[in-house]
Amino acid sequence: MRIALYACMTAVLACSCATTGHKSGLVYLDVDAPIEERVEDALSRMTLEEKVAVLHAQSKFSSAGVPRLGIPDLWCTDGPHGIRPEVLWDEWNQAGWTNDSCTAFPALTCLAATWDKSLSSLYGKSIGEEAQYRNKDVLLGPGVNIYRSPLNGRNFEYMGEDPYLSSKMVVPYVQGVQSNGVAACVKHFAVNNQEAYRMNVNVNVDDRTLYELYLPAFEAAVREGGAWAIMGSYNLYKNQHCCHNQYLLNDILKGEWGFDGVVVSDWGGTHDTDQAISNGLDLEFGTWTDGLKAGRKNAYDTYYLADAYLERLRSGQADMKVLDDKVRRVLRLQMRTNMGPRHFGRFTCESHSAAARKIGADGIVLLKNDGVLPIDTASARNILVVGENAIKMMTVGGGSSSLKTKYEILPLEGIRNAFAGKSEVRYERGYIGDVSGEYNGVTSGQNLSESRSTEELVADAVKAACVADYVIFVGGLNKAAHQDCEGDDRLSYELPYGQDAVIEAIAAAAPGKTIVVNISGNAVAMPWLDKVSAVLQDWYIGSEAGNSLADVLTGKVNPSGKLPFTMPYSLADDPLHTERQYPGLKRDSENILDEYYDEGIFVGYRWYEKKGIRPMFPFGHGLSYTTFVYGSPKVSKSSMTQAGTVKISMTVTNSGKRAGAEVVQLYVADKESSVERPVKELKGFEKVYLQPGESREVSFTLTSRDLSYFDAALHKWVAEPGMFDLMIGSSSEDIRVSVPIELKAE
């Protein structure tokens, strides 16, 4: 509490000085003065020691300000989908506060599955308000790494397999967060697409693949979203750790993109003083070592950008201009956040709960429905819920995204609330999965112990299923090690804990009325798919998880989510087939694995379409309780120049009897390319909400950049003249209309 009080007092001091700062000559304290003038004024007043001190951590989640000048400390928080509870000064365990229980928002796979940019803005604004209320300056998120393999344990924190979808969803998120005076710190930059050996993997990827797949979302966050911070990743690229990487940070991020914000190291991602100085790192966190001997508590002066850097500066071995650039960036971040105009924020309020519930429901994907959904609340008398995930908290665990929530509506609770007074809702466990519920001192408080054997659990579930009107199996993955969890990758594509057998058994006992709800941040195998009546892809939805699910099951919300990644039948269909592709080949002489992205640009639907492999569910797939009719497309012109644009539009009609939303997806196919290109690429999407019988025109405007590929030899985007198909549909596989256009040479 003393720490928080000091931070608040410092902030108050800065704000109070702001009103008189300019008059007294303290321009850096004048919030009305231009930021760059404030930055230069503050820089001119700082000693060498003060400059170095602001470049590294002073605690687990804070870096030092300049008390002499009234510049407050900078406070970060984990927060891909909620504000992390307070931790001890120099430990990961929680500090024991009683007022730091947050709203848990849906994980970012769910947000991406909404395909709704307005909801991304709402998400960012809401979580930014919670960070602001907790006096946090930097929100460590969102994550936009590409879904390269369904085994990646951290995929649930990201926005799927497609760079265009991620790019368009990250921008409003960043803008929403930063509208509160809180910095979004976009992560993990870059080519960080697995958790296995994440500290030791050296990624080998060609420039074309890098620019077409793995950089676009970061570039959009910087250039369109105006992100104030970027976090480096753990892995190596070009044999340099990404937290101090010349090509990624200096050449691309700060050079090509003109990024004026702060590069923050991931916690423990810094490994060398000289590289940290020269290769683009600005703010070092979580090193926990002096780099030479051993770690020790409160070792912040031994960080790579601490005393070692100071010594090099004093001896003339380090350039003062490089130092001042780093300090300018940190000061600029301060002026944008805790030394700028800020409001009080909001925390665990009704509007945030409503936002979480809305985003959660709109992100749930209806994968299959043989007419059993929505459940008729008037006729259903006996509903059976089976599965551990119906009663297990999912906000605790998973790594740095673990949260201490004010509340969490579990699936069973949400279903029971929805059918209260109408139907009897019974519950059977079905299987025993992960009974733990603790992470860094945050506990779920649940007792999930079970005395029955596996055989008894299945038998009890089958018996109950025989007399049920509906059977809802709620299973999937969880936040345990080697599932959806930071630090580990999955060991198998199949469902854990024998769930497949449980689903098979209850589907046989309740034919035509079994509904499977898969809670995960990843695709999973579904060998029982043809034996169940409906499948919902649920996610880690947070505080309102149960209510969001119940809203969809009952038809209160018409499902409109679309898959942000492809779901293959098996890993045999996946593009990563060799050890050199994943997890990498270990070097003989050092503890480094070389990993080769041999699949190149062919990730996700690009791979499946190239190979002619039909997936279990394609990218962009998602059903509705209503139907939509696509009209004939209209183009503004049949050809365009390199500097021109073309507009394509069409009418979408809700032809069913329920209000609903459709995600109209635009794909582009190059028909005459001199280089190998994907069969088609997503280049536009729009979510439209329609009443029964209502029609609306949807339009997209394309430039030559949308028709381009990245030419590595020329190091630029190239749009070759020739014919292209503009394809509009409901998924990457379900193309409804197509129209050709010609790109002409200048």
What oligomeric state do the depicted chains represent?
A: single chain
Q: How far apart, in Å, are the first and last alpha carbons?
A: 65 Å
Coarse structural class: alpha/beta
Task: Give the biggest sheet.
Answer: 6 strands, mixed
What is the number of independent domains?
A: 3
The CATH H-level homologous superfamily of the largest domain: Glycoside hydrolase, family 3, N-terminal domain
What would you note in describing this structure?
- The chain has 746 residues and is an alpha/beta fold.
- It has 3 domains: 2-90 and 102-336, TIM Barrel; 360-557, Rossmann fold; 625-743, Sandwich (Immunoglobulin-like), CATH 2.60.40.10.
- The protein has 18 helices and 30 strands.
- The chain has a 6-stranded mixed sheet. The protein has a 6-stranded mixed sheet with strand order 10-17-16-15-11-12, with helices on both faces.
- A hairpin with a 2-residue loop joins strand 13 (438-439) and strand 14 (442-443).
- Helix 14 crosses helix 17.
- The longest helix has 20 residues, at 2-21.
- The protein starts with a helix and ends with a strand.
- Residues 1-20 have low confidence and may be disordered.
In short:
By secondary structure, this protein is α/β, with parallel strands linked by helices. It contains 18 helices and 30 strands.
Give the SSE map.
Blueprint: H1 2-21, H2 35-45, H3 48-53, E1 62-63, E2 74-78, H4 108-114, H5 117-133, E3 138-140, H6 163-178, E4 183-189, E5 201-204, H7 207-214, H8 216-223, E6 229-232, E7 236-237, E8 240-241, H9 246-256, E9 262-264, H10 273-278, H11 307-314, H12 320-336, H13 350-363, E10 365-369, E11 382-386, H14 411-418, E12 424-428, E13 438-439, E14 442-443, H15 454-465, E15 470-476, H16 499-509, E16 514-519, E17 534-538, H17 545-554, E18 585-586, E19 593-596, H18 605-611, E20 628-630, E21 634-635, E22 639-640, E23 645-654, E24 660-670, E25 681-690, E26 695-703, E27 709-711, E28 716-718, E29 722-729, E30 735-743
Helix pairs in contact: 2-12, 4-13, 5-6, 5-13, 6-8, 13-17, 14-17, 15-16
